[in-house]
Write a structure and sequence with these properties.
mainly beta, Jelly Rolls, 3 domains, 6-stranded mixed β-sheet, 5-stranded antiparallel β-sheet, 6 helices, about 15% helix
Length: about 425
C-alpha cells in the first residue's frame, strides 16, 4: 500500500474506521537507522538503510524501529523531500509513526512483521513509502512533513523473491530536512484502504470506495496501489452540493508500474474522493480477495500528500462507503453476512485489516448505496451486541432489533437505484 513523496499503502482499518509540480519518492523498501540519534542541521540528510536475506521463493515483511535526529524539544524537524534506491525483490516500503516514546537497546533489530505481527501494534499512521526502484524528489510550495526531535518511527518492508536462489534485498532512504523558516505548509498523508475486493475465478471485477474530507485542504499528489491483477484505476472528486463527477482527476493502468497525479487542487471540507480499481483474474482457478500477499491477494488503495496537515484520525477514511458493485439491498447484504463464518468477521476495535472472503463477496455484491447505511448498523452491533452476536442466531437478531433499531431501520430504507 503505498505513499511516496508527493505523488503518492497500514492497512490500519476497522469496518467503522479504516486506517491504522514535483514527482514523489515512490518505492517500497524496508529501512533502518543506527541506534545513535545525532542532532541534524536544517538542510542535512537523514539516512536509513536495511539489508535482509530472502530464501528462494520467499515472500516476507520485515520491520525495524528507527529514530529521527535529536534536537530542542520545542522545535520540530521538517522533511522537505528525499531519495530512495530499492534492490530487486522489494515490493514496497512504508514509514510509520508509532506510539513508542522511549528507545531501548536492541530496538533496531530487524524482525518479521506483516500487518498482523505484534510489532505492528505500535504503528499509527504512515508518512511515506512507495514501490518504484528509484525516486528523488522534493515537496512543492514550501511544504514539508513535521517530526518531533528523536521521534521513533517504524519501517516496514514487503519483499518477494521469485528466483530459485536466495537473495539479499536492500533499501537505501535519504530524507532531506529544511529549516522551519523555509516551511509555509505542514503536509499530511491521506490513507485510504479498501478492505473489500472479490474477483471471481477466470473473471473480472471492480473495487470501489468513497471517503469524505473533514476539512479544507490542497491536494499535492495522489498514488494508486494494486497488485498484479490490477489493470486500471480511476480517482474522482465530488464537490459539496455538486453532482458526482464523471471525469476522473487521476488514472493509471498498470498495478505494478503506476503513474502518479501531481498538482495543486483546492478541496473544500465535505468533498468526496472516490476511487476504483479494475481487476482481471483471467487464469485464476480461485477467487482473489483483499489481502497482504503480493502473489495471492489484491489491494485497492489511494495515498495522497496534501496540506495543511490534519489529525491522523481525519486522514483515514472513517466514513467509507460506496463499495458495492452489485444489486443486493442492505437487508439482503445483512442476510448474506449472517451466512458467513464467524471466524471471518472483522475485528471492529483492533485496527486489523483482515476480513474474510465471504464478507468481501457479500459487501461487493451489494448495490452502491448499501455500505453507507450498512456500516453504521454493523458498528452498532459490534458496540452494543458483542456478547449476543458472538455466534449468529436469534439472540443476536433480537439484540440488534432492540439496541440498533435506528441503524437497522436506515438499512431497511436504503434503496438501490433501478
Amino acid at each position: 500500500m503505498k505513499a511516496g513523496w508527493p505523488h503518492s499503502p497500514s492497512t490500519t482499518m476497522s469496518l467503522a474506521s479504516l486506517p491504522r509540480g514535483s514527482s514523489v519518492l515512490v518505492a517500497l523498501a524496508l529501512v533502518a537507522a543506527c541506534q545513535a540519534s545525532p542532532a541534524a542541521d536544517p538542510g542535512s540528510v537523514v539516512a536509513f538503510s536495511l539489508e535482509a536475506e530472502l530464501a528462494a521463493g520467499q515472500e516476507a515483511h520485515f520491520c525495524r524501529y528507527v529514530r529521527m535526529p535529536d534536537g530542542p524539544p520545542d522545535q520540530r524537524l521538517f522533511v522537505r523531500g528525499g531519495r530512495h534506491d530499492l534492490a530487486d525483490g522489494t515490493h514496497h516500503y512504508l514509514l510509520y509513526r508509532t506510539r513508542v516514546t522511549a528507545w531501548a537497546d536492541g530496538m533496531d533489530r530487524v524482525v518479521p512483521c506483516d500487518e498482523h505481527e505484534a510489532v505492528m501494534k505500535s504503528a499509527t499512521s504512515y508518512v511515506t513509502g512507495g514501490q518504484t526502484p528509484h525516486e528523488d524528489a522534493d515537496f512543492p510550495a514550501a511544504a514539508a512533513l513535521a517530526f518531533r526531535p528523536g521521534e521513533i518511527l517504524l519501517l516496514q518492508g514487503h519483499f518477494v523473491n521469485a528466483s530459485p536462489r536466495a537473495r539479499t534485498v536492500r533499501v537505501d532512504l535519504a530524507l532531506r530536512t529544511a529549516a522551519s523558516s523555509a516551511v509555509e505548509h505542514e503536509a499530511g498523508v491521506l490513507r485510504y484502504y479498501n478492505p473489500f475486493i472479490f474477483v471471481p475465478p477466470r473473471g473480472k471485477a471492480t473495487a470501489k470506495m468513497a471517503c469524505t474530507l473533514k476539512k479544507d485542504i490542497t491536494l499535492l499528489s495522489a498514488a494508486a496501489h494494486m497488485h498484479a491483477r490490477g489493470v486500471a484505476y480511476r480517482a474522482y472528486v465530488d464537490l459539496p452540493g455538486a453532482p458526482p463527477s464523471e471525469a476522473p482527476f487521476y488514472t493509471t493502468k498498470d498495478g505494478l508500474h503506476p503513474t502518479f497525479y501531481a498538482g495543486f487542487m483546492a478541496l473544500p471540507a465535505g468533498s468526496t474522493i472516490r476511487y476504483e480499481c479494475d481487476y482481471e483474474n483471467a487464469a485464476g482457478e480461485r477467487p482473489v480477495v483483499q489481502g497482504l500477499s503480493a502473489e495471492a491477494d489484491e489491494m485497492c488503495m489511494l495515498s495522497a500528500f496534501y496540506y495543511p496537515a490534519m489529525a491522523p484520525e481525519d486522514e483515514a477514511c472513517e466514513d467509507m462507503s460506496g463499495h458495492g458493485t452489485g444489486t443486493a439491498t442492505c437487508l439482503d447484504t445483512v442476510a448474506c453476512l449472517e451466512g458467513c463464518p464467524v471466524s471471518e468477521r472483522p475485528d471492529f476495535s483492533s485496527g486489523d485489516p483482515r476480513v474474510g472472503a465471504c464478507w468481501q463477496r457479500c459487501i461487493t455484491s451489494s448495490c452502491p448505496a448499501v455500505t453507507g447505511a450498512l456500516f453504521p448498523e454493523l458498528a452498532c452491533t459490534a458496540a452494543k451486541c458483542a456478547a449476543e452476536c458472538a455466534a449468529m442466531g436469534e439472540p443476536c437478531r433480537a439484540c440488534v432489533i432492540e439496541r440498533c433499531a435506528a441503524e437497522l431501520d436506515a438499512c431497511a430504507r436504503t434503496a438501490c437505484a433501478p
